[in-house]
Amino acid sequence: HQGYHRSAKANSLKAFEDAGKNGWNYVETDIYKTSDNHWVVGHDAWMPEGYTNGTITIASGDHSYKYEEHTLAEILSFNGPNNEKTDTLEEFCKTCKECGLHPYIEIKQGKMADPNTLDTTNPRYSGKGYCIKILDIVNRCGLRGNATFIASVPYTLLLMARVD
Question: Residues 42-52: pLDDT tens digits?
């Protein structure tokens, strides 16, 4: 759950790498969609406390800076107190592949089977469920058949299984 976070920030690539180094075979993380249809790894739907981009600093209990309301570039402009950053689903999957880890990926937003209207210039995703991009990222990172998905909306998982 969130990697081996005794030695690194929870949900960081370092925490997942350390899980592999400490003999773990499985790791779990939550993912959230950004406003420009990218996927980031995190425990909550908002930017963590203490993160700053030099102008905005996230205060304790501040849940106003939600991933789904900002672009990936905006999110990546923030750093944590120890220079941590928010990682993408692609980075997480590549780390799992490199470390021989089986990821459990929890899709935290609902309606991920709804037709995608954001990637209209990309026929690979246009008009397909948002969850199809998740599946594609995982498969392109070499984890096809070696990843488990969790979602609160069963149809999301059904659609992913049908496509895969």
Answer: 999 999 999 99
DSSP 3-state of 46: strand
Give the separation between CA 110 and CA 59, rounded to whole angstroms.
Answer: 27
Question: For residue 146, which of 99, 88, 113 has the smallest C-alpha distance?
Answer: 99
pTM for the model stands at: 0.91
Query: Using CA atoms in the order 19, 17, 131, 106, what is the torsion angle rounded to 10 degrees?
Result: 30
Q: In what order do the strands lie in the sheet with 26-33?
A: 39-42, 26-33, 102-107, 148-151
pLDDT tens by residue, 82-110: 899 999 999 999 999 999 999 999 998 87
